[in-house]
């Protein structure tokens, strides 16, 4: 069964705010954008030129089952789309543990599913990034160059970025 990652059901209205956040209340509901309650933001989106950006929730919104089972695939929280860009976003609120490895795995799985179900759409997208955003580590900058190169190669062109600020 084909999965539509660009489903209108999970797509928020176009956002043009210069500054907004992406939130995940960790209550089993989908991630969402917000312009008012900065204390809830896990990722901060800076959109200085007020580009028309669309947020699409993936986790807890788009149903992707593991083949031959009723188990859900592990996916990232959502994606931002604009012009010829797609930014996948995984949100974390963890101080310790394997949060980076877990987030990277969720992004990789989502990318594989996108390639499986949306290959023609992805082909037309020029700029692809995968963001790991952790409120407890907002300025995480130490990403191994080898890890970054490996991720780019294995994801067919997605760049990995680990920080809580997304610049449009």
Features:
single chain, 168 residues, alpha/beta, 4-stranded mixed sheet, 2 helices, 9 strands
Describe this structure in words.
The radius of gyration is 15 Å and the shape is globular. The chain is an alpha/beta fold and 168 residues long. The protein has one domain. Helix 2 (145-154) links the parallel strand 7 (127-134) and strand 8 (159-162). The protein has helices spanning 99-123, 145-154; strands at residues 19-23, 32-34, 43-46, 54-57, 78-82, 85-92, 127-134, 159-162, 165-167. The strands form two sheets. Strands 4-5-6-7-8 form a five-stranded mixed sheet. The model has no long low-confidence stretch (mean pLDDT 88).
